[in-house]
Specification:
The strands form 6 sheets. A 5-stranded antiparallel β-sheet has the order 6-7-12-10-11. Strands 1-2-5-3 form a 4-stranded mixed β-sheet. A hairpin with a 4-residue loop joins strand 15 and strand 16. The relative contact order is 0.13. It is built from 8 helices and 20 strands. It has 3 domains: 67 residues, Uridine Diphospho-n-acetylenolpyruvylglucosamine Reductase, domain 2, CATH 3.30.43; 113 residues, 2-Layer Sandwich (Uridine Diphospho-n-acetylenolpyruvylglucosamine Reductase, domain 3); 76 residues, UDP-N-acetylenolpyruvoylglucosamine reductase, C-terminal domain (Uridine Diphospho-n-acetylenolpyruvylglucosamine Reductase, domain 1, Alpha-Beta Complex), CATH 3.90.78. The protein is an alpha+beta fold and 336 residues long.
Length: 336
């Protein structure tokens, strides 16, 4: 357990913003963290931070930040083809995917190369290429921030939705996740509904866990800048979901607008990147911030940007998309 005061957060957020925290605690195991929570009497506002891939610090954090840095991956149960695996909150998410693929366990290969830690995966209900972590989650484990009480939430109790969980709703800023248990499978069923992935896998050979992972990693590397080179948080906005009737109205004006049917055809998910590109923001600079030239959904720190500068860029994009398409973009990133 380590403690720092007036601590720079530059290495703890993927935008590379040099905000500072009043107090910063790093925990190497859950017992340390649970004990600290049980005994904490400071009354400070508390924030839990993992890889910092979904955070935008617009100013210094005048409170206490907790960083659960503990590691560990273990198989907790097996039943036929099903394998339950516990990933500690501090494990890099992409390493968790790599670990599963190397052992022939399917279910999360489409989620390769998503930045962040395992503990944040169920909070955000991360997803890509037709798969969400909710599809394979068995349990989320952790502590309540208020008194250090241990909790375990089942998949059903997490109230998952698109980029949403109970941890972004009623339990927002009230828990710290210590581990996630995923139900993976030896009975491999590949999901290749997205053309870009299907075509890339075909170029690599037969569908396999390894080929799907390589295809997804290659695609994401081509689209997304490396945060250590250009600070970013991956996809900045959620893909908006609209009614079929509204989508049809959009098609009348923009016949090429892409869309993906959801909820048995009752709703359509529209790519936010397409909307942003059509409003002319792709590749544009905004002071020290900007929109990435290869992926309009990615806002970047071009060097020396402040959190406020990136936030102002995001609002300008939201305004233009709302004016042009009558669609209100919602950030995936949390503003602090």
């Amino acid at each position: 357990m380590e403690h720092y005061s007036n601590y720079s957060l530059k290495q703890h957020n993927t935008f590379g913003l040099d905000a500072r925290a009043k107090d910063f605690w790093i925990f190497d195991n859950p017992d340390e963290l649970g004990g600290w929570l049980h005994n904490n009497q400071s009354g400070d506002q508390v924030l839990v931070i993992g890889g910092g891939s979904n955070l935008l610090f617009t100013k210094d954090y005048e409170g206490t930040i907790l960083s659960p840095a503990f590691k560990g991956i273990e198989i907790t149960a097996e039943n036929g083809d099903d394998v339950w695996v516990r990933f500690a909150a501090g494990e890099e998410w992409d390493y968790c995917v790599e670990w599963a693929v190397e052992r022939g366990l399917g279910g999360i290969e489409n989620l390769s190369y998503i930045p962040g830690h395992a503990g944040a995966a169920p909070v955000q209900n991360i997803g890509a290429y037709g798969v969400e972590v909710a599809d394979v989650l068995a349990f989320v484990e952790g502590f309540m921030l208020g008194d250090g009480t241990f909790f375990r939430k089942t998949r059903e109790e997490c109230d998952f939705d698109y980029r949403y969980s109970i941890f972004k709703g009623p339990l927002k800023n009230k828990v710290v996740v210590t581990g996630v248990v995923l139900r993976l499978s030896k009975n491999l069923k590949f999901l290749l509904d997205y053309g870009t992935v299907k075509d890339r896998v075909r170029s690599l050979g037969e569908p396999s866990l390894g080929n799907i992972r390589k295809a997804v990693v290659d695609i994401r590397k081509e689209k997304l800048p490396e945060p250590k080179v250009l600070g970013n948080a991956g996809s900045f906005f959620k893909n908006p979901v609209v009614t079929i009737s509204f989508y049809q109205q959009l098609q009348e004006k923009w016949p090429d607008i892409p869309g993906y049917r959801l909820e048995a055809g009752k709703k359509v998910k529209v790519p936010a990147g397409w909307l942003i590109e059509k409003t002319g923001w792709k590749g544009r600079e905004y002071g020290n911030a900007g929109v990435h030239k290869n992926q309009a959904l990615v806002l970047i720190n071009r060097g020396g940007a402040t959190g406020s500068e990136i936030a102002n860029l995001a609002r300008a994009i939201q305004d233009d998309v709302l004016t042009t398409f009558n669609i209100e973009l919602q950030p995936e990133v949390n503003f602090l």
